[in-house]
Amino acid sequence: MPQFSDRVERISISGIREVFEAAGEDAINLGLGQPDFPTPEHARQGAVDAVEAGKADAYTGNKGIPELREAIVRKHERDLGLDYDPEQVIATAGGSEALHIALEAHVGPGDEVIIPDPGFVAYDALTKLTGAEPVPVPVRDDLTIDPAAIEDAITEDTAAFVVNSPGNPTGAVSPLSDVKAFARIAEEHDLLCVSDEVYGRIVFDGDHRSPAEFAPEQTVVVDACSKTYSMTGWRLGWVAAAPERVERMLRVHQYVQACASAPAQYAAEAALSGPQAVVTGMVDTFEERRDLVVDGLRDIGLDVPTPEGAFYVMPEVPEGFVDECIDRGVVIVPGEAFGDAGEGYARLSYATATEELEEALSIMEEAYEAVR
Ligand code: PLP
């Protein structure tokens, strides 16, 4: 048996993959975490033009090309009124690397990191990879992240907490009062707040707000083109933060990634600077599907808070329901894949054509009748 690191032995391959593999080829897949739209034409063209002009052949600067970082700064100014300098931005290999360098640069053995439960699977794993201890804190009954629960979980070892709005797997959007509370907690307890905002543009009710508006020094914003522009394959995200935090994250990024993929950087620059109507159109479609799925699940008899963003819905489900759905050809993900507090829930992604969603709902109704 070869020798492996203790840190790697503490994490495992995400449970979500196993669910996909258990399902047949014709199954309707409501398990996916990516939009079912093509990447906007102007974003693709940005990459094509750069490649054809020979601009994408070499390493870029470690932080990324200036045009992209300027476009990211304009995006944060436009959406949230934030005032970053392009030097405060590092382009990364997706939101995933952004989360990785944010945690790696700030926490390590002996530290605790408070994460939402249920929460995106990477928070637990990436925290463990730093040698720090994840401290999962259950979300409220309406599936929003609870600032009071974060504050209660703080110990002398707490170094950071992660918030995620709109949330995966919940679709929950933190109201402004909670966002302000996250900022206050970070400042009062001198903690890092990692704010994962990759679904920030996909909001139906209310507004997306960021703790960085109220505690800019304490917050690392993690964002990406992946969900907003249906660009998961391009692997392009970023961190934005105070200069001394950026300098530490750059040390990690420089050695694990050197720079984000050059063609992807040009595509992202075009996506962010070009027409935004594609995003609005996609969000309108998601909202229609959200309503269809939430109404359909309630008609079946399932309890489900109305998700206000992202493209997930998380109903409470009876025991055996997830397996019954998968057996009948509808792939959904058991809530416990996202943390212990997810037990008794399931995550459904509605990034799937309306006709498929309608068919899936009728199959789920049969599954519910079979297990309840
Ligand atoms: N953060 C959240 C909440 C996500 O759901 C995901 C992907 O599913 C990511 C980050 C990672 O995104 P990327 O594909 O840009 O690495």
Automatic annotation (TrEMBL):
GO biological process: amino acid metabolic process
Keyword terms of this UniProt record: Aminotransferase, Pyridoxal phosphate, Transferase
Superkingdom field: Archaea
Domain Aminotransferase class I/classII large intervals: 26-361
Any GO molecular function: transaminase activity
Keyword Transferase: yes
Cofactor(s) annotated in UniProt: pyridoxal 5'-phosphate
UniProt-listed Pfam families: Aminotran_1_2
Quaternary structure and interacting proteins, as annotated: Homodimer.
Family, similarity comment: Belongs to the class-I pyridoxal-phosphate-dependent aminotransferase family.
PANTHER family xref list: ASPARTATE AMINOTRANSFERASE (PTHR46383), ASPARTATE AMINOTRANSFERASE-RELATED (PTHR46383:SF3)
Name this polypeptide is given: Aspartate aminotransferase
Taxonomic source organism: Halolamina pelagica
Lineage of the species this protein comes from: Archaea, Methanobacteriati, Methanobacteriota, Stenosarchaea group, Halobacteria
